[in-house]
Design a protein that fits this description.
The structure is a single chain. With 137 residues, the chain is α+β, with helices and mostly antiparallel strands. The protein has two domains: 2-67, no CATH class; 72-136, SH3 type barrels. It is 55% helix and 18% strand. The protein is built from six helices and five strands, in the order H-H-H-H-E-E-E-H-E-E-H. It has a five-stranded antiparallel β-sheet with strand order 4-3-2-1-5. Strand 1 (78-81) and strand 2 form a beta hairpin. Helix 1 (2-21) packs across helix 3 (33-49) and helix 1 (2-21) crosses helix 4. The longest helix is centred in the N-terminal third of the chain and has 20 residues, at 2-21. It starts with a helix and ends with a helix.
């Protein structure tokens, strides 16, 4: 969701700054300390107001990422880890569980230490089925 918030906030802030740039000359926008402070405050306010649209955007974006990566995963699927210190490692899903938010989490076969510390749990958007991994490589 943080990525969606940043993307929405950057897009809206860009539109606001471009819209206001026609009202002022560039030396005023770049060198007037009062104007710089007001623009930074305006950008911060716009970023806070973009939180709600980001929530609405993040659900479909995550669903699309999961679908593209090969979700829903099943026990026995071979996957490539996309994030974390095991990034790029190809392994097998040995169990499926449910996360705190109700989303499916895959347990992948890494090593005993990862099992013991629960570092073998991955959301399905952080894993890529190997069939898709071979097509991308």
């Amino acid at each position: 969701m943080a990525i969606s918030w940043v993307l929405v906030a950057c897009g809206v802030n860009t539109l606001v700054i471009v819209g206001l740039a026609g009202q002022f000359t560039w030396p005023v926008l770049l060198f007037d300390l009062g104007m710089i402070i007001r623009m930074l405050l305006l950008c911060a306010l716009v970023a806070l107001l973009c939180f709600l649209p980001a929530i609405l955007v993040s659900g479909p974006v995550l669903k699309m990422c999961r679908w593209y990566n090969g979700a829903p995963l099943r026990v026995g699927d071979q996957v490539c880890v996309l994030a974390g210190k095991h990034r790029g490692r190809i392994t097998t899903v040995y169990d499926m569980t449910t996360g705190q938010g109700g989303q499916p989490l895959a347990k992948v076969d890494l090593d005993a230490e990862c099992k013991r510390t629960y570092h073998d749990l991955f959301d399905d958007f952080a894993l890529l089925r190997t069939a898709r991994c071979e097509r991308i490589a």
